[in-house]
Every structure is written in C-alpha cells, then in structure tokens.
Write a structure and sequence with these properties.
Radius of gyration of chain B: 13 Å
Structural class of chain A: mainly beta
Order of helices and strands of chain B: EEEEEEEEEEE
Oligomer: heterodimer
Strand content of chain A: over 45%
Shape of chain A: globular
Distance between the termini of chain A: 39 Å
Number of strands of chain A: 11
Largest sheet of chain A: 6 strands, mixed
Number of strands of chain B: 11
Shape of chain B: globular
C-alpha cells in the first residue's frame, strides 16, 4: 500500500504558527493536496503541490520535497476557527488512472 | 456555483438491510468519486467514474457494494446487505478533468451511515 503518515493530534495557541508534517511513499507520485475538514463536515481543498518548494496562500503555506517524500502545511496567525482535521492526500498515477490516497488526518486544536 | 449534493444526510439501518445513497456532482464535472470515511481515518476511494464509465473500482467490496452513473451525471451507491463495519460517512466528490494536473476534487456533505 501507499502509506501516508502524519501526526494524529496537535495543539497550538491562538495567534501562533503551527507546522503539520506529512511523509509518503514516492513511487508513482503525481501531486500532493492538503484538505481541511471540520468535524462532521466535508473536506475542503486548501493547497496543491507538484513541484518542490513553497506555495503560499494567505495564512496557509504548503511545502513539498519530492526526493524526500515530505510535505508540510504551515498555518500562521492561528484563529480558533482553524481547529479542524488536516488531511494530506497524495495522488498516485498508474493503470491509466489518477487516485488520491489520504492520510488519517491531523486533528488540530487551537486554544486561547 | 452549486456544490456537490448528496442525500440522505443520515441513515440508520439494521445489519443485512440494504441502503442507497445519491450524489449530484458539480455541473460540468466529468469525474465522480465515492469515498468511505471511517471515524478517525482519512477517506478511502471506493470507485471512480469518468463520465458514465468506471475508471477504478479496485477497493470496492463488490460482493455487497455497487455503484452506477448511468447518464454521466448523478450517481447512486448501494450496499446490500449491510454489515456493522459499513458504519461510516460516505463522501461523494467530483472533479473537472479526471484528476490530472491541478484538477481538484470537491466534496459533498456526505451521508453518515449507522448500521445496528
């Protein structure tokens, strides 16, 4: 299988910066996505990386190193509403299709 | 632009009963996905359609699960008979061009299934 590893839980303080790491198997890699999922809701798209480097989008940034099979999501100026699960998903190519494989998610709790 | 629609939102059934879920993707999206998300885990792909054809159903338990997308738009996912371990949220997603490049999947609100 294509294991995707990310921490189960993290806690951070309002206004702070938090980094959520993700490691994955590199064979067949075709892109990496980060999704945010609030409890009881559907995942919503945050970012996409396919080349090495940092992609910045407002308070959220995502980094990718393809050779290391590593990505992180950086959240700045944390707000209470950022409390959610963050899902790392890797797209693998093969057999004519592109399939997203999700990690188990990192549950982030933002405290005052 | 309307998002991905799913119904019902919640369903409670007893084991060995059957159940069906419905999904209407974003208008114009050729690719439709069904995922199963068990509590505390990430979504797991069950089946992927490109228009009305199946692209990948390698993780679909075909002895009890079936899915169709007859006219290339709406889709239904059926479980018959249900088992206790089928309790999960069933998410439908759609994307424009089948997952290539920066093609992004957009998810519906999901159907929470409880099997007693």
């Amino acid at each position: 299988g294509q294991n995707i590893d990310q921490p189960t839980e993290m806690t951070a303080t309002e206004g702070a910066i938090v980094q959520i790491n993700c490691t994955y198997q590199t064979s067949g890699f075709n892109g990496l996505f980060w999704y945010q999922q609030h409890a009881g809701e559907a995942p919503t798209f945050l970012s996409y990386n396919v080349l090495d480097g940092l992609e910045e989008k407002g308070r959220f940034s995502s980094f990718l190193s393809r050779s290391k099979g590593y990505s992180y999501l950086l959240l700045k100026e944390l707000q209470m509403k950022d409390s959610a699960s963050y899902l790392c998903a890797v797209r693998y190519s093969g057999a004519g299709s592109y399939q997203l494989t999700f990690g188990k998610g990192t549950k982030l709790s933002v405290i005052p | 632009e309307a998002g991905v629609a799913q119904s019902p939102r919640y369903k409670i059934i007893e084991k060995r009963q059957s159940v069906a879920f419905w999904c209407n993707p974003i208008s114009g999206h050729a690719t439709l996905y069904w995922y199963q998300q068990i509590l505390g885990q990430g979504p797991k792909l069950l089946i992927q359609f490109q228009n009305n054809g199946v692209v990948d159903d390698s993780q679909l338990p075909k002895d009890r699960f079936s899915a169709e997308r007859l006219k290339g738009v709406d889709s239904t996912l059926k479980i018959q008979p249900a088992k206790l371990e089928d309790s999960a949220v069933y998410l439908c997603a759609s994307s424009l061009v089948g997952g290539r490049g920066a093609d992004t999947q957009y998810f519906g609100p999901g159907t929470r299934l409880t099997v007693l």
